[in-house]
Design goal:
By secondary structure, the protein is α+β, with helices and mostly antiparallel strands. The chain folds into three domains: 55 residues, no CATH class; 105 residues, Outer membrane lipoprotein wza domain like (Outer membrane lipoprotein wza fold like), CATH 3.10.560.10; 89 residues, 2-Layer Sandwich (wza like fold).
């Protein structure tokens, strides 16, 4: 019966034709359309404008900041001056060593930062820009035109799944975006499902899970364009990757080889 089925109409079941159909199948199941691997894709030849949502992070206890107050005329900062060191005394419990040349200051349980010369600085509840403005005003009693630099040093985001270098990254910027985090992870792979990226976000005691489409231009105007401290970005694979990882393609090739061998023998 099998022999009759295989030999019925040699042109219809010829080996070259069968192999051609199999090759086409593999090509189309293994290829990923370009539109699936681009970000915020607009219509071809078109121009779109999006208003990014206004968002500011509000400081909480446990946050850490790199703070540097400098006199532009002398280039001396509070932490470098003799007065600053004397004022600091033994109050170093809120000073965290991040590296060989970078220190950051802790927002303590009372919501304040203990900084050289300036003393206690209320920080909890403020935005980073409000903290900068407060420090500038307080520093004018020492410098006529102080230069203030403030960066949050515990702005950590974890990127997992279909990225080239998954891990937890420290984002040294006051307004980090989704693309800043993905850039640290060396971009998404070609197999990443960009239309359904999972973002796990913790706000206080509440943890929420959201799915975003980063190929949609409207993503720029969404509340997930900016990332929050301790966000987790999990990128799932496309179905074509799942198909490949489940050894379906090797199995299919084995079946094709077996059938091709049977056809070749039966049609001699």
């Amino acid at each position: 019966m099998i022999h009759k089925l295989l030999t019925r109409g040699k042109n219809r079941f010829s080996l070259p034709f069968f192999l051609f159909i199999s090759t086409v199948f593999l090509v189309f199941t293994g290829c990923i359309p370009t539109k699936k691997i681009v970000y915020v894709e607009a219509e071809e030849g078109g121009k779109t404008e999006h208003q990014v949502q206004s968002w500011e992070y509000h400081i909480k206890t446990g946050d850490r900041f790199y703070i540097k107050v400098t006199d532009p005329e002398t280039s001396i900062s509070f932490s470098q001056s003799t007065a600053g060191i004397a004022a600091q005394g033994d109050k170093t419990n809120n000073l965290v060593q991040q590296g060989p040349s970078v220190h950051d200051y802790l927002v303590t349980e009372d919501g304040q930062i203990d900084y050289p010369v300036l003393g206690k600085i209320p920080a909890e509840g403020k935005t980073i820009q409000e903290l900068i403005t407060f420090i500038e005003e307080k520093s004018k009693g020492y410098y006529s035109n102080p230069s203030v630099k403030v960066f949050m040093t515990n702005y950590n985001v974890t990127v997992l799944g279909e990225v080239n270098n998954p891990g937890t990254y420290q984002l040294i910027t006051n307004h980090p975006t989704f693309f800043d985090a993905v850039g640290q992870a060396r971009d998404l792979t070609d197999y990443a499902n960009r239309s359904s990226v999972k973002i796990i976000r913790k706000r206080g005691n509440e943890i929420t899970i959201h799915y975003v489409d980063v190929t949609d231009p409207d993503f720029i105007a969404s509340p997930f364009y900016y990332v929050y401290p301790d966000d987790v970005i999990h990128v799932t694979p496309l179905n074509v990757k799942k198909f490949s990882d489940n050894n379906a393609i090797p199995l299919f090739l084995s079946v094709i080889t077996a059938i091709a061998t049977i056809i070749s023998i039966s049609t001699r």
